[in-house]
Design a protein that fits this description.
Bound molecules: uridine-diphosphate-N-acetylglucosamine, uridine-5'-diphosphate
CATH superfamily of the largest domain: Glycogen Phosphorylase B
Number of strands: 13
Largest sheet: 7 strands, parallel
Strand content: 15-25%
Order of helices and strands: EHEHEHEHEHEHEHEHEHEHEHEHEHHH
CATH architecture of the largest domain: 3-Layer(aba) Sandwich
CATH class of the largest domain: Alpha Beta
Structural class: alpha/beta
CATH topology of the largest domain: Rossmann fold
Strand order of the largest sheet: 3-2-1-4-5-6-7
Distance between the termini: 18 Å
Amino acid sequence: MQKLKVLSVFGTRPEAIKMAPVIMKLQQQSDLFISIICVTAQHREMLDQVLELFNIKPDIDLDIMKHNQDLWSLTSDVLLKMKDIYQNINPDIVLVHGDTTTTFAASLSAFYSKTPIGHVEAGLRTFNRYYPFPEEINRVITDALSSFYFAPTDRAVENLQKSGITNGIHKTGNTVIDALIHTVDNHAYNLAQLGLNPGLKTILLTSHRRENFGEPLHNICKAVKVLVEQNKDIQVVYPVHKNPNVQSTVYSELNNTDRVLLIDPLNYVPFVNLMKSSYIILTDSGGVQEEAPSLGKPVLVLRDTTERPEAIESGTVKLAGSNTDKIVKNTQLLLDSDYEYEKMAKAVNPYGDGLAAERIVNVLKEQLLIPLY
Ligand code: UD1
Ligand code: UDP
């Protein structure tokens, strides 16, 4: 039997974390698959942190990141550079992940090359084209171009079906839970190295979404100042995303604020350990919304909508938006009321069971027996 040539393409930190389990499974079955890895390096340092941790060695590195890049140059760089890659490698299938510009542009380029696409984490939707921007439309287009849909949840399956897709949908769970379990099981980390005070309750904050740039991020920072002022027993730790739009606002608002620790983005191992030791998590991250519920941590989402409603329905995640008063009120409630805290701090796992990558690779195995197009 001929081996299946699988090209995995990704470019940012979360894509790398969520593709790592799939790549590891493909590599374990080298009798069946030729696994080729292409990174666009839409992110550089934040991608390299993950590649090193999971020992992923890209076969191709497009190295496209530019300082403060815009969507037009990013899209055209990926679209054009991937053309040559598809023509030279001629893969049987390309795997992309999620909703970044790498994902969308690499998928369009694959479609032009008539390469079948498998979309990992397919079917997430807010049904609002500007929230999140540009990710909602990136994932809609990627799904329209794909042939295989690895949907993490029932909701994602329904979203795909409602959009008229009838073939190729597989419910797999989210590979982020595979990555999380692997990391929690295999890597400990001493958080004292970060400079946190062990006598204080830790609130972990991350925010990087484009729709929060400017006024909303200022409001989030103001909420942090009010919270540390009102509560002398808390500290806030914020691994600040490298996007210059985030860095400039956060450092100008929060630098040198008592009990607010601004640090560089953390490698996945310390970050997972920090999530585990935090009391509350405030975030606009997609991945963190999926990971924190399985660690039993209450999450307040710094957005007005989410494409991940499952944990809201389970009660561990709440939408807090980007209004200063609303963020303060919701956080203060969790700090003041054990009842409210315990209601949210339960471990639930609506996003996966750690076996998503295996299911994805099993679907690919079936393709060894039938032609892809
Ligand atoms: C991107 C994705 C977003 C995802 C996020 C994950 C798009 C349009 N956005 O947003 O969906 O949630 O990644 O973090 O695909 N930078 C560095 N080093 C790095 C990474 C970024 O310096 O390792 C700086 C660069 O100046 C770069 C800028 O951040 O130009 C923006 O990076 P970009 O990937 O365009 O946007 P993100 O905000 O990271
Ligand atoms: N993460 C990390 N270090 C950090 C912040 C986040 O390793 O300093 C991980 C986090 O655990 C999750 C992923 O990065 O798996 C989320 O990435 P991000 O928030 O950048 O993107 P999103 O998920 O919103 O697209």
